[in-house]
Amino acid sequence: GNDFIKFLGSSWLANKFYTRLTKSRKIKYIVLSDRMGRDMVSFYGLNEKEIEVDYSVAAGFVQNNLIRKYDTKDEVNNNDKKVFKVGFMSNLIPGKGIFEVLNAMELLFHDNPKKWSFWVAGAKQKNIYYDKLDKMVQKGICEYYPFIDGSEKIKLLEQTDIFLLPTYYPTEGLPLALLEAGYFGCFLISCDAGDIGSIINCNTGTIIPDRSVSSIVNSVKVFIENDKFSKKRCHYFFKKKYSLNSYEAKIKKIIIPYGLT
């Protein structure tokens, strides 16, 4: 994860062991994002040729096991939609932005309760209170799924218009949930944590400041007034960049020079 450099920098024993290991043999570093690659080059003074970046490693398995049968349906212009489905899927911990999402959705429902359909998926954690989530579920303004996978996840993401994951988790990498939601054409609203910035552009979503409820609310409102967003363009961006074929080609490029086929 993106905490690798922080871990080595804070542990002299781990740093000593790792330095000795890398000096004693030829090492090829495989990282999951450009940002992690730059961190490694900077921290160890490496040659960039020693870094192999492959941020489709996880996504390759997503394509193969979950969403390879998906294809986009006829699109509906935002101006013609009466209800927008908004989703959040991750571990329910503060760093993932769940409480900011709940506060933002509460404000949106207060302004126009008939405009929204809202769901949350993820396991609750010990010693964290979820009073607001429980109350929203009781009021019928939020569907909650402790665990979701397979066909149920596919159906839910197919129906979702906006996917929220405003994470500021300290060791964030590239959340699989964002890749899955993007593949299904969801408009992504997230923060510039880890390597998330590499997948969010004008065709896929928007980056907002972390810990900002107002930014979530404003981004959602801007989206529903945008008649140019295309679920199909968003879908094909992720389909092309994170396809199983691309994943297999990158893995072969890494292992073949080492005789690991």
Shape designation: globular
Radius of gyration: 20 Å
Mean pLDDT: 83
Number of helices: 11
Distance between the termini: 26 Å
> How would a textbook summarize the main sheet?
6 strands, parallel
Percent helix, as a range, is: 40-55%
Topology, number of strands: 8
Output the helix-strand order. Answer: HHEHEHEHEHEHEHEEHHH
Q: What portion of the residues fall into strands of 2 or more residues?
A: 5-15%
Structural class of the helices, strands and pairings?
alpha/beta
Short description:
The protein is α/β, with parallel strands linked by helices and 261 residues long. It has helices at 4-10, 12-23, 34-44, 57-67, 98-111, 131-138, 150-159, 176-183, 213-224, 231-241, 244-255; strands at residues 29-31, 51-53, 84-89, 116-121, 143-145, 162-165, 187-190, 205-207.
Could you please describe the fold and organization of this structure?
It contains eleven helices and eight strands. 44% of the residues lie in helices and 12% in strands. α1 packs across α2. α3 (34-44) links the parallel β1 and β2. The strands form two sheets. A six-stranded parallel sheet has the order 5-4-3-6-7-8, with helices on both faces. The protein has a two-stranded parallel ribbon with strand order 1-2. The protein has 261 residues and is an alpha/beta fold. The model is unreliable at 55-65 (pLDDT under 50). The longest helix has 14 residues, at 98-111.
